[in-house]
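Checklist before submission:
- one chain only
- standard amino acids only
- sequence pasted in full

Submission:
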Amino acid sequence: MAAAPIHIDVLPAFAQPFLEQGLAAALSGRTDIQWQKALPYSSEKEAVETLFREAQKNPEALIFMDDRYASFFLSESLPAKHKSFLENRKVILITGKDRDWIYHVHKIGITCFLTTEATHDELVESIYSAWKGVRFFSPKVVEVLIELSFRAAPESRVPLHEQLSERELEILKMVAEGLSSKEIAEKLHLSYHTINTHRKNILKKLSCKSAAELLNYAYTHELVERN
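Returned file contents:
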């Protein structure tokens, strides 16, 4: 007796229509995977309500989301309703974001996790894995998780400021000395915009959220002398 044909419904929830259209095109012509019409995206609130409503209509459908969908993955602490949805539905997430973001989001419990660098075979494998209830991370995601897990291990932990370039370290010291972005730009013969970009990158690399935290980091790690 022949096995029943495989039929997998995929419900796309995307804030980036071109990305969704590209994935839909990559799967066109397949009879085993049915890429449904993408959910309309207007405001974040309406997008979430639409997703919950449409997902409830088809509880067996896989949910395929991008990383910008309704700020689902932007906060450190997800609303209980969002967290429950992600934990209880088969969700595939695709992202083009940076390594630290990937490391943070994978802890939420996403079923399958791809980067925008995923191959066609990885795309299909993620859908089949989610359909079976098996977790699947594309090789690029696995690479990031291994690297950041190793970096976070106590025996291998290195100071965050070792990630800074020579220019960033130079600017950090000037910020700690009390120089403004304008003053630093003039001193280094760089544009004001360039200095601000460097400052944002320094905050990110040192996991600081404000100038005060940045100064505290610089003093704590003796990068500058206290006045």
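Reviewer check: Residues 160-220 form a domain with the Arc Repressor Mutant, subunit A fold (CATH 1.10.10.10).
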